[in-house]
Specification:
This protein is about 20% helix and about 35% strand. By secondary structure, it is α+β, with helices and mostly antiparallel strands. The site of one zinc ion (ZN) has 6 residues, from loops.
């Protein structure tokens, strides 16, 4: 996604406000393709600080992922703040940077800095990274998701299986072992 910054390029302190919806870029999460199920809602301001173009704002969307416990499709809302600096580079400098990075086709610079040429800023990789950073470490359909029974494979949120009778309180598990031992020794 590219934005035109021509109106603020020549004037230090000038800014542009954006409030828009755009299609979610394709994302890869743990080698799997994931997609947003809502458009990206972007609210941000671009400011010409004199040294760089400063982007500040917020991104919101929602993704459909898989619950880590019960493996059911789960909607995960994403809301992340955006704060990035973009520095102007000449096309030739940019090519040199990419060459130095070892891969001329690698659009994502290893540097922390973002670069732009001409009068447009490309937000694609910033948006992608922000969405991925905004995802929770553990995806759960519900904080108390009961998960899948490790014995019969049933989704315990939907159906209580019989295996639960055997699935005793972990605080008593030690006792069970002791009883088992005692029984075996008694033989
Ligand atoms: Zn779940
Ligand atoms: Zn079961």
């Amino acid at each position: 996604m590219k934005v035109n910054i021509a109106p603020i390029m020549e004037q230090k302190g000038a800014s542009l406000d954006f409030n828009l919806e755009t299609k979610c870029p394709p994302l890869e999460l743990q080698q799997q393709e994931v997609t947003c199920i809502e458009p990206l809602r972007l609210t941000f301001t671009l400011t010409n600080t004199g040294e760089c173009i400063l982007l500040q704002g917020r991104l919101e969307t929602a993704l459909q992922l898989t619950c880590d416990r019960c493996l059911q499709p789960t909607v995960v809302p994403v809301a992340v703040p955006l704060s990035e600096e973009f520095y102007r580079a000449k096309e030739s400098e940019l090519n040199a940077k990419r060459a130095a990075a070892g891969d001329p086709f690698n659009e994502e610079d290893d540097d922390q800095d973002n670069w732009y040429t001409g009068d447009t800023i490309d937000l694609s990789s910033i948006l992608k990274d922000s969405i991925l950073l905004g995802l929770p470490m553990k995806v759960l359909c519900h904080p108390e998701c009961a998960g899948i029974c490790h014995i019969c494979g049933k989704n315990r949120n939907e159906d209580k299986c019989q295996c639960e009778i055997d699935d005793i309180d972990p605080r008593l598990a030690g006792l069970k072992e002791l009883l088992k031992d005692a029984k075996e020794k008694g033989r």
